[in-house]
C-alpha cells in the first residue's frame, strides 16, 4: 500500500469536503479517489468521513488524522530532501587526507569554502603523506586525498592536476643568498670580472640556476615515497649541471628544514614550506625546471558523492594560489627591496 499517496488524497478530500471537487484538484476521476479513501479506512481500521448526510463531513478519527497526516507527509518530504542532499554530497562527513606541507592559507581556504558552499558537509582532515593516503584510500579509510601526481593506483579516480613550481631552500647565510640579494645588485657579483652577471642571459637576478648548486648536498624525500618523482628530481638536477655530493633523506617538512638550516644540504620545495623558518631563504629556479603536480584522488567505488566536487574546489584554490603568487607559488616579479625584520636578528 502506498500510504503517502492515500494520505495525500485524504488531505485534499478533507479540505474540500466534496469528492467531486477533490478529484478535480487531484486530476483524477472520482471513482478511483473514493476507492483510495476506502482502502485507507480499511488499512487504518476507522471511518474517516461521514457520508450519511448530503454534505461530506469528517469523523472524529478523520479530524485527528488530518494533523497526523500532514506531519507524516512533511516528515517524508524532509526525509526525501535529506537523502537528495546526501546523494549530492551536501551532507555528512568527508574524510580527506592532506599532505604535511600544505600551506596554512590553502588549508584555511579549503575549510572556509566548504563551510560556505556546503554548510551541511563536515570535513574530517587527516595529515598524511601521499603513500599513506593512497593506502587508506584503497582500504576505504579515506573518502578523498590531496596527493602528489601521478596517481598510479587501480580503483582510484583523480581530479584536475595543478602544477606548483618548486624553488631551492637555502640557509640565509649561504653564499648564494649573500651574493644575490632580493634587489638587483649594482656591482659585479663575487667571482666575476665585470659588472655583467655570470648567469644565463634573461635570467632574473634573484633566480638560482641548478648549476649554481654544484658542490652541495641535497635533502630530498626517500625514494620509496614516490619513486617516479624522486628519479625525475635527480634527472633534472644532473641535466642542469647539479650532481649532489650526498643525498640526505627527510620524510617530514620540518625535518627537511632542520637539515637545510644545519647546513646538511639544499632542498627543493614550494615557497610556503621555506617561510616556516625565517633563517631560511627560498629562491626560484631559473627556467622553473621542477613543477610538482597535486590533485585530489578518491575511490572509484564506492565514491563519496562530495569527492568530485571537492576535487574541483581544491584545484581551483590551488590554481588561484599559483596565479596570484600567494604562498606556494613562484613570484612573477622581483621582490620589493624592503627591509626584513629577521635580517637584523640573524646577521651573517
Describe it for me?
The chain is an alpha/beta fold and 348 residues long. The protein has 3 domains: 3-87, Arc Repressor Mutant, subunit A (Orthogonal Bundle); 95-163 and 293-324, Periplasmic binding protein-like II (D-Maltodextrin-Binding Protein, domain 2, 3-Layer(aba) Sandwich); 172-182 and 205-287, Periplasmic binding protein-like II (D-Maltodextrin-Binding Protein, domain 2), CATH 3.40.190. Helix content is 41%, strand content 17%. The protein has helices at 3-16, 19-26, 30-44, 60-87, 104-117, 130-138, 175-179, 227-239, 253-261, 271-274, 307-324, 342-345, and strands spanning 49-50, 57-58, 92-98, 121-127, 144-148, 156-158, 162-165, 167-171, 218-220, 247-249, 266-269, 280-284, 291-299. The strands form 3 sheets. Strands 3, 4, 5, 6, 7 and 13 form a 6-stranded mixed beta sheet that branches. Strands 10-9-11-8-12 form a 5-stranded mixed beta sheet. The chain has a two-stranded antiparallel ribbon with strand order 1-2. α5 links the parallel β3 (92-98) and β4 (121-127). α1 packs across α3 and α1 (3-16) packs across α4 (60-87). The longest helix has 28 residues, at 60-87. The radius of gyration is 33 Å and the shape is rod-shaped.
Amino acid at each position: 500500500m502506498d500510504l503517502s499517496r492515500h494520505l495525500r488524497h485524504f488531505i485534499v478530500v478533507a479540505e474540500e469536503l466534496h469528492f467531486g471537487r477533490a478529484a478535480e484538484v487531484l486530476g483524477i476521476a472520482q471513482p478511483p479517489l473514493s476507492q483510495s479513501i476506502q482502502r485507507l479506512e480499511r488499512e487504518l481500521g476507522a471511518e474517516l468521513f461521514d457520508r450519511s448526510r448530503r454534505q461530506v463531513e469528517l469523523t472524529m478519527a478523520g479530524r485527528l488524522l488530518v494533523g497526523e497526516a500532514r506531519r507524516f507527509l512533511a516528515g517524508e518530504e524532509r526525509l526525501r530532501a535529506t537523502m537528495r542532499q546526501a546523494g549530492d554530497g551536501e551532507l555528512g562527513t568527508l574524510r580527506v587526507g592532506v599532505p604535511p606541507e600544505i600551506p596554512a592559507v590553502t588549508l584555511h581556504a579549503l575549510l572556509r569554502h566548504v563551510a560556505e558552499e556546503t554548510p551541511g558537509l563536515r570535513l574530517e582532515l587527516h595529515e598524511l603523506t601521499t603513500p599513506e593516503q593512497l593506502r587508506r584510500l584503497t582500504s576505504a579509510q579515506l573518502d578523498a586525498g590531496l596527493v602528489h601526481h601521478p596517481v598510479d593506483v587501480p580503483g582510484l579516480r583523480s581530479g584536475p592536476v595543478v602544477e606548483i613550481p618548486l624553488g631551492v631552500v637555502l640557509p640565509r647565510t649561504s653564499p648564494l643568498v649573500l651574493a644575490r640579494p632580493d634587489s638587483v645588485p649594482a656591482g659585479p657579483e663575487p667571482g666575476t670580472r665585470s659588472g655583467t652577471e655570470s648567469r644565463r642571459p634573461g635570467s632574473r637576478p634573484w633566480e638560482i640556476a641548478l648549476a649554481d648548486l654544484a658542490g652541495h648536498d641535497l635533502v630530498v624525500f626517500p625514494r620509496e615515497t614516490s619513486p617516479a618523482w624522486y628519479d625525475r628530481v635527480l634527472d633534472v638536477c644532473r641535466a642542469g649541471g647539479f650532481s649532489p655530493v650526498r643525498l640526505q633523506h627527510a620524510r617530514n617538512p620540518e625535518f627537511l628544514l632542520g637539515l637545510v638550516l644545519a647546513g646538511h644540504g639544499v632542498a627543493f620545495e614550494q615557497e610556503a614550506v621555506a617561510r616556516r623558518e625565517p633563517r631560511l631563504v627560498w629562491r626560484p629556479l631559473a627556467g622553473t625546471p621542477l613543477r610538482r603536480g597535486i590533485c585530489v584522488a578518491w575511490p572509484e567505488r564506492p565514491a563519496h558523492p562530495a569527492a568530485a566536487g571537492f576535487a574541483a574546489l581544491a584545484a581551483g584554490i590551488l590554481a588561484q594560489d599559483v596565479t596570484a603568487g600567494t604562498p606556494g607559488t613562484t613570484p612573477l616579479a622581483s621582490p620589493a627591496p624592503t627591509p626584513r625584520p629577521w635580517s637584523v636578528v640573524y646577521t651573517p
